[in-house]
Specification:
This protein is an alpha/beta fold. It has seven helices and nine strands, in the order H-E-H-E-H-E-H-E-H-E-H-E-E-E-E-H. It has one domain: Glycerol-3-phosphate (1)-acyltransferase. The protein has a seven-stranded mixed β-sheet, with helices on both faces. Strands 7-8 form a two-stranded antiparallel sheet. Helix 1 crosses helix 4, helix 3 runs parallel beside helix 4 and helix 5 packs parallel to helix 6. The longest helix has 20 residues. The radius of gyration is 17 Å and the shape is globular.
Length: about 250
């Protein structure tokens, strides 16, 4: 089943990658080190898109996690198994060590059991301890299968058109602890939700997994809580520069 999904994903066509230029700048500054976070619902195409980059991703030991791990392994990810309740500490340390050595990490921000689209602290802790930027990544497609799971898991249908969005990086201070991490968790959640709504809205017509429409990438706030940012890289109307692979849909 996992390799069948790999074949299906290969038929899809990316028509737009938003935030690509800024993402490239971030990686040049860090020597490739980063932690990517997406929603559990968006795992299939996230795995396909990043598979060739050999991300190291933490996936839970749950039954759902086993399915996700098979897909990820088939698509080229390096899996470290663990969760907040089952071997999570050791798994998190394992991923962080790899990132410090120059690897790129990945995390399903609301996995393994949700609530859906509510970020947990794992990705924030991973980015802080690894000293790497936390980058929200999400996608949308013009047609998908919607599975009957806790988060309405999405699998793009064959030959679907896909948009991918790299959100602004979040820099978590190494000395942030306890309650000081909450603003960064909330910022990740807000940016992923705003980005996901934007991706889903790009194809216009309402679908069961879509809730919000609107032009332009949302202004998702500063790089980190309380930090100002020069937004000159954005055009009027909220559209981000550095968009490639197809331009307008």
């Amino acid at each position: 089943m996992a390799c069948l999904i790999k074949v299906l994903m290969a038929t899809c066509r990316v028509v737009r990658v938003a935030g690509e230029a800024r993402h490239g700048e971030t990686l040049s500054r860090t020597g490739g080190r980063a932690v990517y976070a997406t929603w559990h619902q968006r795992m299939p195409y996230f795995a396909h898109y990043f598979g060739p980059r050999r991300l190291t991703i933490m996936i839970s030991r749950s039954r759902d996690g086993e399915y996700a791990a098979r897909i990820a392994a088939c698509l080229g990810f390096r899996n470290v198994r663990g969760s907040s309740t089952r071997g999570g500490t050791g798994a998190l340390i394992g991923v962080m060590r790899k990132i410090r050595k120059g690897a790129t990490g990945g995390m399903l921000a609301d996995g393994p059991r949700g609530p859906a689209r509510v970020a947990k602290m794992g990705a924030v802790a991973m980015a802080r301890n690894a000293g790497a930027p936390l980058i929200p990544v999400t996608w949308g497609a013009d047609r998908c299968w919607v599975l009957n799971t806790w988060d309405r898991y999405l699998i793009p249908k064959p030959f679907a058109r896909v948009v991918v969005l790299f959100g602004d990086p979040i820099r978590v201070p190494r000395d942030a602890k306890g309650g000081a991490l909450e603003p960064y968790r909330r910022l990740l959640e807000d940016r992923l939700n705003a980005g996901t709504r934007w991706c889903d809205a790009q194809f216009g017509e309402e679908r069961p997994w879509r809730r919000v429409k609107g032009p332009g990438i949302p202004d998702t706030g500063p790089l980190s809580p309380g930090e100002s940012e020069n937004r000159s890289h954005r055009k009027g109307g909220g559209e981000m520069t550095g968009v490639g692979n197809g331009g307008d849909l």
